[in-house]
Amino acid sequence: MTEGDESVDSRRSPGLVCAHHHLYSALARGMPAPPKDPTTFMQVLEQVWWRLDRALDPDMIEWSAKLGALEALEAGCTAIIDHHESPNAIEGSLSVIAAACTEVGVRSNCSYGITDRHGSEGATRGLEENRRFLSEGGRGMVGVHAAFTCTEDTLNAAAELASDQGVGVHIHVAEGRDDIEAADRIRGLSRDDWLIVHGVHLEDDHGISGTIVHNPRSNMNNSVGYARPTRFANSVALGTDGIGADMLDEFRVAFVKSREHDISSTPDLAWSWLETGWTLFPEARTDRVTWSYATMEPWHLAYTTAVSAVDVDIDGQPALRDGVATRVDAQEIRSKAAEQAQRLFKVLESTA
Hints:
Layout: E1 12-13, E2 16-21, H1 41-55, H2 58-74, E3 77-84, H3 93-104, E4 107-114, H4 119-135, E5 142-146, H5 152-165, E6 169-173, H6 182-186, E7 195-198, E8 211-214, H7 216-221, E9 236-238, H8 247-261, H9 267-280, E10 288-291, H10 298-301, E11 309-314, E12 317-321, E13 324-325, H11 330-350
Parallel strand pairs: 2-3, 3-4, 4-5, 5-6, 6-7, 7-8, 8-9
Antiparallel strand pairs: 1-10, 10-11, 11-12, 12-13
């Protein structure tokens, strides 16, 4: 660790940060196959994720968030920057997610992904959910799904709301080639406090302000390409895009992916991306995680799998002891989440 953290030979570290999550995806594992096999990234969105988010209701949102937060805690991740979408259950959804994370003990930053996919009324409802949550004191940002699913009016309204609330915009950018024009559309709106998620198909000198959030495992899973974040002048953070919140595992994937493209790449580079999370969520620096491995140092961790959190203290209070959550019943969360997953699967089967 660096900058005054516990010594590199210690088993302790600050809490880790997931800079981009989709907690609602915690229920997706084992979901029914889509109506037809997707062969492009756009078809993955249409056949899998956009069908799933339309099926969500408040109970599913609550228990997916609790399960995702619990799994984050068990992986030593104490802060989650979440990006949510549930077009048929928008109102109040961010408060449900924030409350679920608080119950588990994990810090959260929530936003609703505004989109015109469901018409201007849907975009307005998403905008108002962000406004409500932030105005009521919720910690968050203004979410936007992606520029290619939004009109100019919607993008302008999101940027204006973020400015008014003193927060940034959390937006997917150029993840796939369908969003190739994103830079031209948001460049003039962006600010340093924006989160620019993915950036796979951005030009090197794209000119967008904000932090690039790199999600290597998700990018490989969706076959969209390698973002090669070293080419950007922006600071870079690590996210998972909803594939859990095991940030040590994501760090290893980020390292080997960078190594695949550049033999001179070192674990220190990928670790610097993990450390950016503490800039985005400074409170996580004060959290303390005790690990199962004796040397919490990038060169060791890059080649050591199965390192797990043993004890976690968040805001000075115990949240995990001997690998077991102290504030919630982990077995109950997993059981209730499994029930909600089955409800979700039945909805998906009925809309196939």
